[in-house]
Design goal:
Helix content: 40-55%
CATH class: Mainly Alpha
Order of helices and strands: HHHHHHHHHHHHEEHH
Strand content: under 5%
Structural class: mainly alpha
CATH architecture: Alpha/alpha barrel
Radius of gyration: 20 Å
Strand order of the largest sheet: 1-2
Number of strands: 2
Shape: globular
Distance between the termini: 39 Å
Number of domains: 1
């Protein structure tokens, strides 16, 4: 009987995807149909298999996954009244803390978990029901930004960044989520916290400029981005022989998106250098610089960044023009499993063996293919 009721809910909710199809951004009928089919199958997987009875998705890994999936479901056309979404939101609400943070007890990932919760609650906040929770969470993550307490000098490479929260080292990934959360909360590009984050983001780019005089700035200078210049510097793609930190795609797109949200002009040398790197390494079959590792995090960041830039096409190093939306749709259609989910079959790094997380990433990616 339970299965029958769930099937009725699935069938009733499938019709809610019409607004998504009508808002497709210059896509062909074939691409629009592919999006609708992929979203329907992914939502059915999440409803029938992915979600636990308490409303969570993979809570054993992190409540942040539930937040990411919830944001993806709403952006994919699911209303907050949908039982699956309502249960997930109730689960997230259970992690709201007195200090405004939205995370587990004793969490080592306070920034990460709270920022993703903000993104989910912001998507569900059309009627203002989460105004207070979002405002408090916003204040919480602002308070743990490196340098917010005045104890770190602006000249320090970590100033303005955000880390997971388990140690003092900030990184570009967490700083990118932080900026996303502030923007979703209504912050403008000239917001003080976003501008402080921009200082850190600029220091993660392989480009010497007035904005980046770190020890790594001149070692590669290819315009790409890496993980962090703090605590001795780290790139997940490794170092060069001269001690440079290798650029890779997921961080390059994260860095570029952060600059766009911070109001950096398209003619700024930082943006131009990043776009030059992207043209040289345009590829959807892997995470350039990292191969299979972080592939679906990359595809999500790729789509969100190009949408933020407002570009429909990308020209590669050979002069070939790519309709990134159409190519992304084809790539995701090819990789979707029969049960409607997606998973990284070649690398388990960064939790990409978790079907719920990866399915959340790619539902978001498809949502960025629409206006």
């Amino acid at each position: 009987m339970k299965i029958l009721k769930q099937m009725v809910v699935v069938i009733a909710c499938l019709g809610m995807l019409a607004p998504l199809q009508l808002m497709a951004a210059g896509l062909s009928d074939k691409d629009q149909q592919a999006i609708e089919q992929m979203v329907n199958r992914a939502v059915q997987y999440l409803r029938m298999t992915g979600q636990s009875d308490d409303g969570s998705f993979s809570k054993e890994a992190s409540p942040a996954i539930t937040s990411l999936v919830t944001a993806a479901l709403i952006k994919s056309g699911r209303p907050v009244e949908d039982p699956m979404v309502a249960k997930a939101l109730k689960f997230i609400e259970g992690y709201v803390r007195k200090d405004g943070g939205i995370h587990q007890d004793g969490s080592l990932y306070r920034n990460y978990e709270t920022c993703l919760a903000i993104l989910a609650l912001a998507e569900a906040n059309k009627d203002g029901r989460y105004d207070k929770a979002i405002a408090n969470a916003n204040n919480f993550v602002r308070g743990i930004q490196v340098g917010a307490d005045g104890k770190v000098a602006k000249s320090s490479p970590e100033w303005g960044g955000q880390g997971y929260g388990k140690h003092k080292r900030p990184d570009l990934s967490n700083t990118s989520f932080f900026i996303d959360a502030l923007v979703a909360s209504g912050a403008s590009e000239d917001d003080a916290a976003i501008q402080a984050a921009l200082v850190f983001v600029s220091r993660t780019q392989n480009l010497e400029s007035e904005h980046n005089t770190t020890e790594f700035a001149t070692k590669i200078e290819d315009g790409g981005f890496y993980y962090t210049p703090a605590a001795g510097g780290t790139s997940q793609a490794g170092k060069t022989a001269n001690g440079g930190l290798r650029s890779y795609a997921s961080m390059t797109y994260a860095g570029l998106k952060s600059m766009v949200y911070a109001g950096v002009d398209k003619d700024d040398q930082r943006v131009k250098a990043a776009m030059s790197w992207i043209k040289k390494h345009y590829d959807l079959s892997e995470n350039p610089g990292m191969g299979a590792e972080g592939h679906f995090y990359y595809l999500h960041t790729f789509a969100k960044t190009l949408k933020a830039l407002g570009v429909d096409e990308v020209e590669d190093a050979k002069g070939k023009t790519h309709n990134w939306r159409s190519e992304l749709i084809s790539e995701l259609a090819r990789r979707q499993k029969r049960n409607g989910s997606w998973i990284n079959t070649k690398s388990t790094r960064w939790l990409e063996a978790d079907e719920n997380l990866v399915t959340g990433y790619l539902l978001l990616s498809l949502s960025y293919c629409t206006d």
